[in-house]
Amino acid sequence: MTTDRFLLCGTHAAETEPVRLIAGPLSAEFVNGNLRTIRHGGTEVLRAIAYIVRDRDWGTYEPALTNLTIDQGADAFSVSYAASCAGPGGSRLAFHATIKGSSDGQLVFDVNALPESDFETNRCGFCILHPIAGLAGSQVTVEHSDGSVVATKLPDLIDPWQPFRDLRAITHEVRPGVTAECRMEGDVFEMEDQRNWSDASYKTYVRPLALPWPYVLPAGETNRQTISLRIASDDNTPATTEASGAIRVTLGEPGPALPDVGVIIYPDDVETALANLPTLSALGPQQLLLHYDPTGGHGLDTLRAFARLAAAYPARTTLECVVACCGDLDAELAEVADMVRRANLRLDAIAVSPSVDRQSTPPGSAWPPCPPLEDVYAAARRAFPDIRLGGGMFSYFTELNRKRVPAGPLDFITHCTCPIVHAADDLSVMQSLEALPFITRSARTIFGDKPYRIGPSTIAMRQNPYGGATKDNPRGERIAMANRDPRQNGQFAAAWTIGYAARVAPAGLEMLTLSGFTGPFGVLAASGEPVAEGSFRPVFQTIKGLCELAGFKHVTAKTSDETRVLALAGRSSSGETVVWLTNLTASDVAVDLSEFGRGHLVMAPYAIARIG
């Protein structure tokens, strides 16, 4: 069992098993002091109610729980516990929590926090997550702290800023005849559209981002917050039932071509790639994305190394070029172009982005000094007149949505995503796939039919736009904002990668980059990993399969339960149809293959399967 867990998730550590709490039609999962998957009659009402404490880099503390008591009755449940967070310099925050739920649809989560010493934090309080499936664009009622009530809608396209501020309560329809009111007390709450970060939720949180952070909770001053959920239903409202039986797969009509597949190459990866050219050829990426950052010490030697690889492996090449913007833009980019020529580096495209744009500018914050992007792109075009020019953000869709680049001078738009910005548990990472169609549709609404690239997007975070650095992860844990993630070594990453490609395929991307060649984001294990250096990670086969599909016409592929199984289908010019299936869960799943003239397939946890 331990070995199986490592093969699945790249770690022997098991996640904490949730405790199922039930009170009539109301149910919730209790995990590590918080609630997730709150349902009524089988329908998800809230994705989570969590009391969160974050450090100055937006890292999340993992409080130690003590005196945990769980009482489960016939028509009610209750939970109580104490917890504490240890901060830098010996600072400590203690809090006591109670949770009560009843069969009449009432749920109350109450926390009293008491800093034992001055405690620095970027956020301390409740986060409430509303799901996006079935709710995006729907009617809600919002109550503000002054008692005013407004009928409005949740955003359909992704809102770059906070859709609702100064919240006291929000009410939505769970299903016909059933409404849920979520009331927040004890602080000033506002909502952000977490789909910006590929989270599958709208998040209501404390405190407003326009207020200064980090801030200090004074020693000895109690802070109390309470979340109350009240679900009202008609007596005759039927409850939903969970789907049973095998999951069905159906194919539709062909659409846009499936994208080229890229592999990100960092300077430290070049020698490994050159030493493993047969493996790189077997993988078969159509594009190499070469990361070049003069602010990180990259220069002529870096470009010469890239040139050796580009000469040895016949793929299209794009230079992902960070622009320092510290002086004359023409001089800076002309110097890069001169070094590219001196290095004899063959390039098909260059993507440029100011270095400061790798850091996020939150709501209420001042934008950092930066030349107009029109000037940056014009200088890049003058320096590289004969190759394609791209722009956007080397960080995430969040930053692109908030700083919408002038796309007119560009040949393509690009951005990345990362699923562990806010949470790193297995369920949240897989649920992040739900947000990707909203990201691509929002990007298409902003930029039209401009050629569109995504990546590198991997489970691990390559840079932290929201703090000083990514989190080191030497013990291979599941932690948010980590620069390496254990699941890259397991079947989990392979399943997530196919799911990612399936979710973005309808957008007609030009290029999709979901891996590196080696290192923490790679298809080959590097030194210091818990698997042999140079060995194939399970994601190798997944990326190889996507490379083979590049240029095929995307065929619409639906499953009867896309929270558990996703399908990606492509059709070749000769009419051959290839389908990849991925099990997004940690359980066996039966899949009905009658669409393909076959019987049932039982997919193991996080398994992928190729048909055709």
Write up this protein.
The longest helix has 15 residues. The relative contact order is 0.12. The protein has eleven helices and 33 strands. It is an alpha+beta fold and 612 residues long. 18% of the residues lie in helices and 38% in strands. The two termini are 32 Å apart. The mean pLDDT is 95. Helix 5 runs parallel beside helix 6. It has a 16-stranded antiparallel sheet that branches. The protein has three domains: 229 residues, Beta-galactosidase, Chain A, domain 5; 73 residues, no CATH class; 291 residues, TIM Barrel (Alpha-Beta Barrel).
Task: Give a concise summary.
With 612 residues, the chain is of the alpha+beta class. The protein contains eleven helices and 33 strands.
Would you spell out the secondary-structure blueprint of this structure?
Layout (H helix, E strand, L loop, with lengths): L1 H8 L9 E5 L2 E6 L2 E7 L2 E12 L9 E9 L3 E11 L5 E11 L3 E10 L3 E3 L1 E9 L7 E6 L4 E5 L10 E12 L2 E8 L3 E5 L7 E5 L9 E3 L5 E11 L13 E11 L2 E6 L4 H6 L1 H7 L3 E6 L7 H13 L3 E8 L5 H15 L5 E6 L18 H11 L4 E9 H6 L9 E5 L9 H6 L4 H12 L4 E3 L36 H14 L6 E6 L22 H11 L3 E7 L5 E7 L5 E7 L5 E4 L7 E4 L4 E4 L1
Parallel strand pairs: 19-31, 20-21, 20-27, 21-22, 22-23, 23-24, 24-25, 25-26, 26-27
Antiparallel strand pairs: 1-2, 2-3, 3-4, 4-10, 5-6, 6-7, 7-8, 8-18, 9-17, 10-16, 11-12, 11-13, 13-14, 13-15, 14-18, 15-16, 19-28, 28-29, 29-30, 30-33, 31-32
